[in-house]
Design a protein that fits this description.
binds magnesium ion, four-stranded antiparallel β-sheet, binds adenosine-5'-diphosphate, 38% helix, alpha/beta
């Protein structure tokens, strides 16, 4: 079976800076794949290229058997690419349910159906009790879950999660891990960026490590965490941030 997503020789340059350098990855249907790497490695940039926020400087993006490289973000969302943003983008002055309805309207043009879909997603994500509060009144862990809910409401085949578990307490992170597993059980493929390896490694089937814009290593989580190249990349990062 062909992969659900493939990036083929993708480059992204910002002026003189190379954020993605000849990145070729693939994600199989039904997989949970972790995209990890130090800060500034190019993870969010690659997500933007996959979701269509930016056109790549060079290379192509193949989704579900189709070359989507020249399609805008909305068209890719229609085809089944759903994503969250590292910086939470929910509409703060809208209620939780209305935020999710915005996602549901991608596939349900009748408001009543979009509302029903949004309620279903809030149940699924454990936010049903918060449906009528303003997004701005949610605690940070709930805001992350709202981001996931909005993306799920678009009924994606591929869900791109950008650091949705980062900065949470261990208990909140475990709730998030359980939600990602539940999402996959519904048949959705997951590509997730996480900076913290301890959280993401037990969850993913495969890990891809980006460093300095390039794929450094990919493989089973247990092999990846032991790889000297990966350890060096992370230690370098730790020194860089002074931790
Ligand atoms: N829109 C942009 N314009 C200029 N530089 C950018 C832009 N987006 C990201 N970068 C740079 O590209 C590099 C990779 O960033 P990013 O993809 O956000 O890394 P990560 O998500 O792995 O931390 C960084 O050096 C960052 O400063
Ligand atoms: Mg990032």
């Amino acid at each position: 079976m062909t992969a659900l997503l493939e990036t083929r020789g993708v480059w992204q340059r910002f002026g003189g800076l190379i954020a993605n350098s000849d990145v070729s990855i693939s994600v199989g249907r039904g997989e949970i794949v972790g995209l990890i790497g130090p800060n500034g490695a190019g993870k969010s940039t690659l997500f933007n290229l996959i979701a269509g926020v930016l056109p790549p400087t060079q290379g192509s993006i193949i989704f579900d058997g189709e070359d989507v490289t020249n399609l805008p973000a909305a068209a890719r969302c229609q085809r089944g690419i759903g994503r969250t943003f590292q910086v939470v983008k929910s509409f703060e002055t809208m209620t939780v349910i209305d935020n999710v309805i915005v996602g549901a309207l991608v596939r349900n043009t009748v408001m009543r159906e979009a509302r029903r879909k949004a309620h279903e997603v809030l149940e699924f994500t454990g936010l049903a009790a918060r449906a009528d509060v303003l997004a701005s009144d949610l605690v940070p862990a709930e805001k992350r879950r709202l981001e996931v809910a909005r993306a799920l409401a678009t009924e994606p085949k591929l869900l791109l999660l950008d650091e949705v578990l980062t900065g949470l307490t261990p208990t909140e992170a475990q709730t998030g891990v359980a939600l990602v597993r539940k999402v996959r059980e519904t048949g959705v493929t997951v590509l997730m960026v996480e900076h913290v390896m301890e959280i993401v490694m037990p969850l993913v089937d495969r890990a891809i490590v980006l460093d300095l814009g390039k794929v450094l290593v990919e493989g089973k989580p247990a092999d990846v965490v032991r790889d000297p190249k990966v350890i060096t990349a992370y230690l370098g990062d730790r020194h860089a941030v002074g931790a």
